[in-house]
Amino acid sequence: MFKALADPTRRFLLDLLFARDGRTLTELESGLEMSRFGVMKHLRVLEDAGLVVTRRSGREKLHFLNPVPIRLIHDRWIDKYTERQASALAELKTELEKPDE
């Protein structure tokens, strides 16, 4: 997944899907200056990483953002490093709000 997120074009595609989910390849490629085939290759990497899910709707293939893998990384790696700072701030707040004795 980190390899998929490392590319700015793929992050841009995820941002487009975050803004409005369920886009076609044509809609996604209109925001980029690259060939249709290039966009398809980027989408394939995102699909393989589980960040994009596709579904057929009639003749169209719609692409949807799957935020679950990103959330799992957040919970596993980012959240645990911010817990210590948050608890320290809560303790500081409690200490500062104690009435003077």
TrEMBL record:
Sample GO molecular function, one term: DNA-binding transcription factor activity
Coiled coil: none
CDD domains: HTH_ARSR (cd00090)
InterPro entries: ArsR-like_HTH, HTH_ArsR_DNA-bd_dom, WH-like_DNA-bd_sf, WH_DNA-bd_sf
Domain HTH arsR-type as annotated: residue spans: 1-85
Pfam families given in the database record: HTH_20
Tree of life domain: Bacteria
NCBIfam families, alphabetized: HTH_metalloreg
Protein's recorded name: ArsR family transcriptional regulator
Lineage: Bacteria, Bacillati, Actinomycetota, Actinomycetes, Micromonosporales
